[in-house]
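## Example pair
The file below holds two records. Each record gives the amino-acid sequence first, followed by its structure token line.
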Amino acid sequence: QVQLVESGGGLVQPGGSLRLSCAASGFTLDYYAIGWFRQAPGKQRELVAGISMGSITYTDSVKGRFTISRDNAKNTLDLQMNNLSPDDTAVYYCYVPGAWGRGTQVTVST
């Protein structure tokens, strides 16, 4: 059974950092296109960062601040988020084709 479980969200002040992690089970992440999406209240879900065929992509608003990485030994997908702003507030989801995690809330606020 394919399962994705996110962790690492929380409340952080502007300029702070968080590290999200997505634990995969039931399959091996190494063989899939994978990514992090986010959905803010009232907005559509958007791709934040993804890995596919060895290439990494970021949405423009997070370039230089966020880093996506995959740990094949642990079968996890991480998202290091630095210099966070209130605009980054959203539920963050881990995704592989055909499966979504339940999401983890990230709130950036004073």
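Second record, same layout:
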Amino acid sequence: QVQLVESGGGLVQPGGSLRLSCAASGFTFSSYAMSWSRQAPGKERELVAAIISAGDTTTYADSVRGRFTISRDNAKNTVYLQMHSLKPEDTAVYYCGARMFDDEYWGQGTQVTVSS
């Protein structure tokens, strides 16, 4: 059974940091590209960051480049999203995703709220 379980979300003040984690199971994690997407109320889901299976190539949305870092630990079947300099507009539910060809899985999401 495929599972992607996100953790690490919460309430943080503007300018603060959070690290999200996504623990994967039920598939060959090291073969899948992993990603983080987010969805704010009333908005479409947007891709925030992605990392290929080997972990040596990453991509970021313009809105987070330079503030967020995606990484993965294939030995622990876990992908991370380190977020710095958080802004109120980063408030959203953050979802972890896994993809290889036509196979695609998503987690249930973790809420990140940036507010003073």
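Notes on the second record: The radius of gyration is 13 Å. The longest strand covers residues 92-100.
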